[in-house]
């Protein structure tokens, strides 16, 4: 097989309009359109490469200074996963058929988890505040609700890393996962933090109880994390299928800690320029593989409801995107997309359930190709698989459709 590369760049939270089901399931997101509202926001924008790739074509509109491309390969996708979540969004992109989880508090499962922990030889103590309890395990680890996202979406297993090590935190995370159907169990720890630091930062709200992780300091030093999702079978995702063919995966930014990489290299990073530079440097020397990158700072700006910061990060991303495009060789495929929305103008700081753009770049393309609205972002995973002459269980490749139209 001729050496070739497929590159997916996810601009985290850069949605292009609320999905049709928003009035029914997420009314707070009615009217959301991250890309459009940023275009309309009075701040300097410099996105020539996004425009060249067909951003406005995917949005099916034009604005002053924001015109459609005449040679773009573009489409857009709905979200199949319930809600609007980066973790599940990236699992979907990787080829997962998302299952609807249960949104609930840890109290519903505390008895079963406690019983299983005791059965497995752990020391367990309940810590109660305002008539709700979390679990303290081996006087090193706390199990409770995630208090940073929409309540009921995740259960945290958070530990004093210096005392217990990450293996114990991970083992307990997998034990908890057996008993709950919430979207995520997040098992993590950090250095320089004691069990008292965790217990001194207990939060209680609306029957939920957990640790204020940022306040506890657990993110500051030597942070380790594993996200254990509901209904996620990594063996059915495209990175696993590529491993079977001896093809390496290269993950950059947030992708490396939320998608399982069975063969290849991970580049952990948050800064937009640094993350993109990691990819750019590798593209200069690596001739084959699947490259998967997440630009996280756009999402962080959305959470902060900071449109100016969001636009600034997009300006940096677009500049670096131009460097990536200059490295694309004949036979390579570049796909730029999002995983959901996070409209900083909508009035809340949570993700917004929006369609996402899917912008494909191939060297020397001189045609305008619209590959339509996809029902699921898992079509990306299947397209990557098809590109490398393999197949995964879910999703529909759009590669053949693009190739057929290019040859007309």
In short:
The chain is built from 16 helices and 16 strands. The chain has 408 residues and is of the alpha/beta class. The chain has two domains: 269 residues, Alkaline Phosphatase, subunit A; 124 residues, no CATH class.
Secondary-structure map with pairings?
Layout: E1 5-11, H1 22-25, H2 34-40, H3 48-53, H4 55-59, E2 73-77, H5 86-93, H6 110-119, E3 124-129, E4 132-137, E5 141-145, E6 154-160, H7 161-177, E7 184-190, H8 195-199, E8 202-205, E9 208-211, H9 213-216, E10 224-229, H10 238-244, E11 249-252, H11 255-258, E12 264-267, H12 272-283, E13 289-295, H13 297-303, H14 307-326, E14 333-337, E15 356-361, E16 369-374, H15 378-387, H16 399-406
Parallel strand pairs: 1-13, 1-14, 2-16, 6-7, 11-12, 11-13
Antiparallel strand pairs: 2-15, 3-4, 4-5, 5-6, 7-10, 8-9, 14-15
Describe the global form: globular
Shape-level CATH architecture of the largest domain: 3-Layer(aba) Sandwich
**Strand proportion:** 15-25%
What is the arithmetic mean of pLDDT?
A: 95
Task: State the total count of DSSP E strands.
Answer: 16
CATH class placement of the largest domain = Alpha Beta
Euclidean distance between termini CA atoms: 25 Å
Uncertain regions: pLDDT < 50 for 5+ in a row?
none
Biggest sheet strand line-up: 12-11-13-1-14-15-2-16
What does the main sheet amount to?
A: 8 strands, mixed
The CATH H-level superfamily of the largest domain is Alkaline Phosphatase, subunit A
**Radius of gyration over all CA atoms, rounded:** 22 Å
CATH topology of the largest domain: Alkaline Phosphatase, subunit A
Helix-and-strand structural type: alpha/beta
Helix content range: 25-40%
Our count of helices gives: 16
Q: How many domain regions?
A: 2
């Amino acid at each position: 097989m001729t050496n070739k590369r497929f590159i997916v760049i996810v601009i985290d939270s850069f949605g292009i309009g609320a999905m049709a089901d928003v009035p029914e399931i997420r009314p707070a997101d009615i009217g959301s359109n991250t890309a459009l509202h940023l275009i309309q926001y009075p701040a300097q924008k410099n996105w020539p490469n996004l425009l060249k790739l067909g951003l406005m074509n995917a949005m099916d509109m034009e604005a002053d200074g924001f015109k459609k491309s005449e040679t773009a390969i573009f489409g857009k996708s709905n979200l199949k996963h319930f809600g609007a979540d980066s973790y599940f969004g990236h699992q979907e992109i990787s080829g997962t058929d998302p299952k609807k989880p249960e949104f609930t508090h840890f109290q519903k499962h505390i008895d079963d988890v406690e019983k299983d922990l005791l059965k497995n030889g752990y020391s367990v103590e309940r810590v109660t505040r305002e008539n709700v309890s979390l679990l303290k395990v081996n006087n090193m680890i706390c199990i409770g609700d995630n208090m940073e996202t929409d309540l009921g979406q995740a259960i945290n297993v958070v530990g004093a890393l210096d005392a217990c090590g990450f293996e114990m935190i991970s083992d307990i995370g997998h034990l908890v996962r057996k008993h709950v159907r919430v979207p995520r169990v997040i098992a993590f720890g950090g250095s320089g933090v004691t069990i008292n630091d965790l217990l001194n930062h207990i939060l209680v709200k609306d029957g939920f109880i957990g640790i204020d992780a940022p306040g506890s300091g657990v993110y500051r030093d030597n942070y380790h994390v594993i996200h254990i999702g509901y209904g996620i079978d990594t063996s059915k995702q495209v990175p696993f299928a590529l491993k079977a063919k001896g093809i390496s995966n290269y993950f950059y930014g947030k992708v490396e800690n939320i998608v399982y990489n069975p063969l290849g290299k991970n580049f952990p990073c948050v800064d937009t320029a640094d993350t993109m530079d990691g990819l750019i440097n590798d593209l200069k020397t690596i001739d084959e593989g699947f490259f998967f990158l997440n630009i996280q700072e756009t999402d962080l700006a959305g959470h902060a409801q900071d449109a100016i910061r969001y636009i600034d990060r997009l300006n940096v991303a677009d500049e670096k995107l131009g460097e990536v495009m200059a490295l694309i060789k004949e036979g390579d495929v570049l796909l730029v997309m999002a995983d959901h929305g996070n409209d900083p103008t909508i009035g809340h700081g949570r993700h917004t359930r929006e369609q996402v753009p899917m912008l494909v770049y191939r060297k020397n393309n001189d045609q305008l190709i619209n590959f339509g609205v996809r029902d699921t972002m898992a079509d990306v995973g299947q397209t990557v698989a098809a590109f490398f002459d393999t197949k995964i269980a879910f999703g529909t490749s759009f590669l053949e459709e693009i190739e057929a139209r290019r040859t007309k």
